[in-house]
Amino acid sequence: MIEQKSLNEYLVNKFKQQSLKTRLYDNLKKAYAISRTEREIKENQIVDNFKQYMLKKRVLTAFKNIPIIEHTEALKLREHCMKRRSILIIQKWKELIPQLRQENLIREDKLQVVVDKFRTSVLGPKVIKAWRKYTYEAQQDKEKQKFQKEMWSKVSGWLDEIDEKHSF
Known about the structure:
Number of strands: 0
Oligomer: single chain
Low-confidence stretches: none
Number of helices: 2
Mean pLDDT: 80
Largest sheet: none
Helix content: over 70%
Strand content: under 5%
């Protein structure tokens, strides 16, 4: 029985070690494959960068070898092409102006509708409230002035009576 128990423990330990080894080995294989693909990607990038560098170098050396006469002719040709392009651009722009104006008018109409809604919904009540307040205050001012005139007329009447009494 003891031998059987120790044998079972031995086998279980051996299995654990074996499974750890296989897992470790599998993980190492995966890591190696990943590092290999990363290295290949870096190598490909280096090769691509080198190819682009060499292409640029060839192009630049080819342009350095162009004689001055050909260079000036190329500049003249470029200027001619640019003039032609600018003329074409201006012509297309002239063709598009009515359409652009129409789009601007539509956009302005839409904005005007928004502004009108804002004015009626937000500013309208404020204006009416201010108008009512003004009319109320104007009415109060008129009443005050009327009362003041009445008081002055009373006072001047009293003063006239006092003057008549004292001025024999």
